[in-house]
Design a protein that fits this description.
The chain has about 260 residues and is an alpha+beta fold. The protein is built from ten helices and four strands; from the N terminus they run ααββαβααβααααα. Helix 1 runs antiparallel to helix 7 and helix 8 crosses helix 10 (about 245-259).
């Protein structure tokens, strides 16, 4: 892939994400996020069915439902909060993953109570949109003393400022990669390009999933986001219609440059 083509594609992750009201996620449309068009009754029945499935796996503190309108379709979110003192067994994680795959029309996220608390403490807009403004469909509100103190306008302004800081980091890495590309310093170019994409993914994950994947592998980030953005791999397709080689090469180059 041409270097400047890659930089241009990265731009779709980094520019104007936070120009939103509470009906956020306008940028999901060009990324073709998974949406669900159906009647209100069908959605309610699905939610009840999904809630029963989740509770059959483990006891939860609370389950939240929220939705975002995108033209004539809606994106549905289910956020599940569980007590961190409960240690999930491997088969329970497998069961939850299976539910996420079976009910892919819903964007299902699982949080420990501590993770949610950290998300709010870091002014993550996901928590504002999907928990504070979400509808509780099971249990009781987690950490109500913290949720009750949220002032949406103030919270959102800090969330925007935090995003801009991350955006500047991404832009810096892109600038470094462009500079070293001109100087034919390939190792540093690959490192800068890898980091700009990785940080873009992490910002997107914070926004769409409420938590970023702690992993330096671009392949792992793509797999993490793919349930929500089925066409995310198309961002990296080269002239031969291949995306895998490019991602693997960047991961290898990153490891070689850093370690």
């Amino acid at each position: 892939l041409n270097f400047y083509t890659i930089v241009l594609k990265i731009g779709c992750f980094t520019i104007h994400w936070y120009r939103y009201s509470i009906q956020v996620c306008y940028f999901i449309k060009p990324l073709n996020m998974r949406t669900f068009k159906n009647s209100t009754l069908a959605v309610k029945n699905k939610i009840e069915e999904l809630k029963s499935r989740l509770l059959s796996v483990a006891e939860m503190i609370s389950i939240y439902f929220s939705e975002v309108s995108i033209d004539d379709t809606k994106a549905y979110f289910i956020n599940v909060i569980y007590d961190e003192q409960i240690l999930f067994k491997e088969e329970q994680f497998i069961a939850i993953k299976k539910i996420q795959n079976e009910y892919s029309e819903f964007n299902i996220q699982i949080f420990k109570e501590r993770q949610l608390k950290n998300s709010i403490a870091n002014f993550n807009s996901y928590a504002l949109l999907h928990i504070y403004f979400g509808k509780i469909i099971y249990g009781s509100p987690p950490i109500p003393n913290i949720l009750n103190k949220i002032e949406p306008a103030h919270y959102l302004s800090i969330s925007k400022a935090n995003f801009r800081k991350e955006q500047l980091k991404i832009i810096d890495f892109i600038g470094d990669a462009k500079f070293t590309y001109k100087g034919k310093i390939n190792a540093y170019t690959s490192f800068g390009l890898h980091q700009s994409i990785e940080l873009s993914f992490r910002s997107l994950e914070q926004f769409l999933c409420g938590k970023a994947l702690i992993n330096h592998s671009l392949k792992a980030h793509i797999e993490y986001l793919e349930l929500l953005i089925p066409n995310i791999r198309s961002l990296f397709i080269d002239d031969r219609g291949n995306h895998q080689e490019f991602i693997e090469n960047l991961d290898r180059a990153y490891n070689a440059s850093r370690y």
